[in-house]
Design goal:
Shape: rod-shaped
Strand content: 15-25%
Order of helices and strands: HEEHEEE
Number of strands: 5
Number of helices: 2
Distance between the termini: 101 Å
Length: 100
Amino acid sequence: RAPPPAPPIQQASEWDVPPEVVNNVAGMNLGPSPAASQGPPGYQSQAPPGYAPGPPAGGAPPPPPPPAALPPGWEELQDPSTGKLYYVNRATNQTTWERP
């Protein structure tokens, strides 16, 4: 008489395998895998007290500081044909493309 058939092998998902097993391949500790560090769906990680994340890698640099106020008598206008900014001093009738 033959032995009973073995139960079917169930493939473990990455959620079923402990991270220390997933990350220790042939004795080499590879650190947390991206999937293991994310946790199961709906998991919210807890940051240690006092931890504040930095800006995202490759993110945009912070915006430049606002320009200083124009000298007295100067106005900033926009050329309607080019959209470029220019500056006018109505007291002296001076115009310039460069910020005074």
